[in-house]
């Protein structure tokens, strides 16, 4: 089992920045990737980005590329989502998730079904 706890959300003005954290605990050694997703009211959950647990390679969704980036601190078992130049349409609950299924992760890291463990989310609200 893996436990994930997000933090760092809040209210920010458009153009501002936030840095979300996702602290992982438990059996993290079998994790292939850590993903970030978001869900706005009335919308489906959307892939934001992913970082490989080993090696650190990242992929960022086109919708936020150039504004968001992901990093990790393996010593702290923590993954970060740095969000810059925030827009009102970035308002959502942001979730981190862990995938320990190599086959699914290799096929498509952007699907939420690829991830077995999820945090409870942190609210990000961007005012115009």
Can you walk through the features of this model?
With 128 residues, the chain is mainly β. The chain has one helix at 102-107, and strands at 2-7, 10-13, 18-26, 33-39, 46-52, 58-60, 68-73, 78-83, 92-99, 117-118, 122-127. The protein contains 1 helix and 11 strands; from the N terminus they run E-E-E-E-E-E-E-E-E-H-E-E. Strands 2, 4, 5, 6, 9, 10 and 11 form a 7-stranded mixed β-sheet that branches. Strand 4 (33-39) and strand 5 (46-52) form a beta hairpin. The model has no long low-confidence stretch (mean pLDDT 96).
Beta fraction of the residues?
Answer: over 45%
Q: What general form does the structure show?
A: globular
Q: Uncertain runs with pLDDT below 50, 5 residues or more?
A: none
The strand count comes to 11
The structure class reads mainly beta
Name the average pLDDT: 96
Distance between the termini: 40 Å
Encode the helix/strand succession as letters: EEEEEEEEEHEE
How much helix is in the residues?
A: under 10%
Radius of gyration: 14 Å
* Distinct helical segment count: 1
| Main pleated sheet | 7 strands, mixed
